[in-house]
Structures are given as C-alpha cells and as structure tokens.
Amino acid sequence: MAARRTTKKTNVSGDELKQFYRDMLLIRRFEEKAGQLYGMGLIGGFCHLYIGQEAVVVGLEAAAEEGDKRITSYRDHGHMLACGMDPNGVMAELTGREGGYSKGKGGSMHMFSKEKHFYGGHGIVGAQVPLGAGLAFADKYKGNGRVTFTYFGDGAANQGQVYETFNMAALWDLPVIFVIENNQYAMGTAQKRSTSTPDIHTRGEAFGIPGEAVDGMDVLAVKDAGERAVAHCRKGKGPYILEVKTYRYRGHSMSDPAKYRTREEVQKMREERDAIEHVRHLILEGKHASEDDLKAIDKEIKAVVNASADFAKESPLPAAEELWTDIYA
Ligand SMILES: Cc1ncc(C[n+]2csc(CCOP(=O)(O)OP(=O)(O)O)c2C)c(N)n1
Ligand SMILES: [Mg+2]
C-alpha cells in the first residue's frame, strides 16, 4: 500500500474497529455484487453504487441511537445496509423481485423501512432535504428527542430548496443533521466547475447553522463529528451541517463512461485514502486481530452477500395483480 496517512490516536476499542471493518466491507461487497448482477442484466434501470463512500454512513450510524431517522438520495444502498436493513430484501428489490423491500416495484432508488427509520431513496436531486426537515419537525412536535440524518450530495447542495429548508430548520430549531456527502462530482461535473465556494459546510452561516468539514475517508473522524452534531441537535439547539469529504470510485451510475476524470485520480484515492484499508491497518497495527481473523470476516461477509444474490434470484417477479396495489390515486 502506498503512503498511508497517520491517524491521531483515539480511544476506540478493538471490537468497535472490527465492527466498522465488517460494516464497511458489507457495503463494498454488496455493491460489487450489485454491479455484477447489473452487468448480467438482472438489475434494470439506474443503479448508483456507493463504493468508496462507506465510511460516511458507517461512521454516522455509529453516532446514531435507536429511533433516529435517515433519508437520502438515489445513492442509497449503503445507507440501508448501515442502518440494519436486510441485505436479502435490498438485493431482491434491486432485481425487481417480490421479496424486495418495495415488493419489487420500487427498485434501487425507492426503498423504505419504517422499522429501521429509513425514509428512502429519492431520485429527484435535493428532494429529500425538505422531507428530512419535515421528519425532524414531526420529532420536535412529538418531543421525542430523535434526530434526522438528511444526506445529500455536493451537486444537490446548489439547489434552491436546500436553502429554503435551511431557513425553516434554523427558524424552528429542528433536530436535523444535514450531511453533505461531497464526493467531488455531480454526475460528470467536478465540484470546482459547478460550485462558487468549495467549503460547502459554511453555507449555513447565513441562517445561523453551524457546520464543519469532515474527512469522509476516516470512519473515526466521521463518528466523532457525528457525535458532535447529534449532541447539538438533541440539546434542542437546532440544525447542524456536516460536509463529509469523500470520493466515489465507480461512475455516477452503472451507465457512466467516466470521461471526466483520469484513471490515475481514482487509483490514487483507492491506494492512498481507502477507508476500509485504513481501518484494516488500525486493527493490525493495534493487534486487535490477525490477518487470519480478518480473512475470516471477509469470508463471512462474502457469504452474506452471496446469500442475498441467491435470495434475489430465487424470489419470483411480482404477480400481475400487484400493479394495482400501493397506488394512491
Ligand atoms: C431535480 C433533478 N435535476 C437533475 C437530475 C439529474 N441528476 C441525477 S443525479 C445528479 C447529480 C447529483 O450529484 P450530487 O448531488 O453530487 O450526488 P452524487 O450523485 O454525487 O451522490 C443529477 C444532476 C435529477 N435527478 N433531479
Ligand atoms: Mg456528488
């Protein structure tokens, strides 16, 4: 491995590091499998993979408590797995099968789990931002102490509705954490070509919303920042912005020719900043586990992912009558 940055010492336990490793690896292997199934024609439509960004959701989920909510964009499989949704149900939905979270009728961008407080999965860029504030409004109204993680991208951060939402969220002190997953690109447009000021965590200043930038390739840094944001919201101090600087290794979606960046740029991130390798290094360096222990985890995760693909392939397509259910007009 090329030059590895050093991480400041933390008091994180070996068990916690191993859990981070496991959770991030599940997302990566799941997404790789989804990419394969897409290539085989078993997944149709759009499919946006989360590979490279795993530390963002895993770090923030470690800062969340039972009952907290999450809502995100179309790049959503990682969020579902990180909050504990069943890989079988997610993979079956990707392949449009009856056993999927939306009975095979929603696909990659339209899955929900009330049980895990996951509110989608939204294909319209930025649309989930006001919805996230709405979820937080409901919690504030009920006085239940819950917070909502509202995830969106660097591209979405340039949308008008985001600022209408910031205004209302600040005005009403809503317990919402706006998580900007800055992966440096919005489809084929690099952030520097679309965004007047690179530090998007300062965008809340006009509304009195505090914000901070976080290294999104370091799961420990993400968890730390997440805990600060959660504490702020739970104290009733209103919204908080986390701009998590990350990187997606794959194209925008499975149909992206990726002509807007060099292979070397991607390779450099993979070799020098990979979040899973980082944790692997911390585990080995701290002697929390051996290479063989980690191999056993890799094997276990591979089995879970393979089982999800088998479950999906064996699940039938939705019955024709299902066309007439879950319709609200
Ligand atoms: C309102 C709207 N405009 C445009 C699109 C097309 N579109 C889909 S994703 C995307 C880029 C969003 O990039 P970003 O917010 O950075 O998220 P990322 O894909 O990087 O996770 C665009 C323009 C859309 N889905 N909705
Ligand atoms: Mg982006």
From TrEMBL:
Molecular function GO terms recorded: pyruvate dehydrogenase (acetyl-transferring) activity
Catalytic reaction equation(s): N(6)-[(R)-lipoyl]-L-lysyl-[protein] + pyruvate + H(+) = N(6)-[(R)-S(8)-acetyldihydrolipoyl]-L-lysyl-[protein] + CO2
Swiss-Prot/TrEMBL cofactor(s): thiamine diphosphate
CDD domains: TPP_E1_PDC_ADC_BCADC
Superkingdom of the source species: Bacteria
Entry keyword set: Oxidoreductase, Pyruvate, Thiamine pyrophosphate
Pfam families for the chain: E1_dh
Residue ranges of every copy of the Dehydrogenase E1 component domain listed in the record: 23-320
Main EC class the enzyme belongs to: oxidoreductase
EC number(s) from the headed UniProt entry: 1.2.4.1
Biological processes, Gene Ontology terms: pyruvate decarboxylation to acetyl-CoA
NCBIfam families cross-referenced by the UniProt entry: PDH_E1_alph_y
Subunit architecture: Heterodimer of an alpha and a beta chain.
PANTHER family in the cross-refs: PYRUVATE DEHYDROGENASE E1 COMPONENT SUBUNIT ALPHA, PYRUVATE DEHYDROGENASE E1 COMPONENT, ALPHA SUBUNIT BACTERIAL AND ORGANELLAR
Function: The pyruvate dehydrogenase complex catalyzes the overall conversion of pyruvate to acetyl-CoA and CO(2). It contains multiple copies of three enzymatic components: pyruvate dehydrogenase (E1), dihydrolipoamide acetyltransferase (E2) and lipoamide dehydrogenase (E3).
Protein name: Pyruvate dehydrogenase E1 component subunit alpha
Organism listed in the record: Shimia aestuarii
Gene: pdhA
